[in-house]
């Protein structure tokens, strides 16, 4: 993921993610078009000859002058009409980028994603984890489903949350046993074992106290840890989460038998194509690069067999008896049109957790990593400040 980024006007050219963003929104570009734009930006101090672009970008391929002209034209069309003159054509010579650039400060999430994970033993299993930043408190991102921390850090929403929080606290991520970079196991554990794994991670980093952020399926783990390890937890955020996955007469917001059967069928016959990861990306953000990321994240996160075991564990989760026992400041965030975990789950959590704050946003941003990211950042910063105001810790 290594690379730098440049900002010019409303645009940001992110080499790490091979992405052009316009006013914060990704603007899809073909790989060839992105490569031309990035090369011209890098060499903005001069007119770049056409022959040089062809030689440097495609040394082993036959790319015609017409193809280069088309790539430059498509790069211009990715800019707003008033800004298309930033890519200037010099007749019979080449092209030059003439905008004023500002180099973007490197993202700490990029650096930690490039570094190898650290490991701690929990029983006979090695649990992988990473840390970013420093501070008087920890923030633990408890990822959902089979999403691994390396793949998560490739998402701009995650890296921006990490960047914002790591200026105030130390941010921890870990891969649950059986997923990501942690040891594969013969059978995935139940919640008590996962609680022990998280305990081991916090021991390894000598955590002074943590705010837990449970995303989706990570919510029950974060909640169970908060109840069973109350002295370690200073705050709790549940994002697109649930207390019970399956529907019941007293829990109509859960998954139906048909939905569960459909997911089982996909895991058995289509796993690795990215459907479960694409599900939490709002439709308007589902670009070709994100589709490719979703497939890669599924493949890296778990094998089909491990995913079926994980689903079996999730189907047995019901932490509703623990909700009244949560003692830490809590916030529940949920999108009203969430396609993965219906909003009734979030409402039920907030209604049962003493003093919990419910934050709903319109739309389908399941993990609050796209349009809902500013809301998530604001609520987590507020939770950190609230945690710091309690005896025993203070933000610097």
UniProtKB/TrEMBL annotation:
Residue ranges the UniProt entry marks as DNA-binding: 3-99
InterPro entries according to UniProt: AB_hydrolase, AB_hydrolase_1, AB_hydrolase_fold, OmpR/PhoB-type_DNA-bd, Sig_transdc_resp-reg_C-effctor, WH-like_DNA-bd_sf
Name of the protein described by the UniProt record: OmpR/PhoB-type domain-containing protein
Cited SUPFAM superfamilies: alpha/beta-Hydrolases, C-terminal effector domain of the bipartite response regulators
PROSITE patterns: OMPR_PHOB (PS51755)
Superkingdom of this protein's organism: Bacteria
Domain OmpR/PhoB-type residues, every copy: 3-99
Coiled coil (residue ranges): none
UniProt-listed PANTHER family: BIFUNCTIONAL LIPASE_ADENYLATE CYCLASE LIPJ, HYDROLASE, ALPHA/BETA FOLD FAMILY PROTEIN
CDD domains: trans_reg_C
Pfam families membership: Abhydrolase_1, Trans_reg_C
Record keywords: DNA-binding
Organism per entry: Anaeromyxobacter oryzae
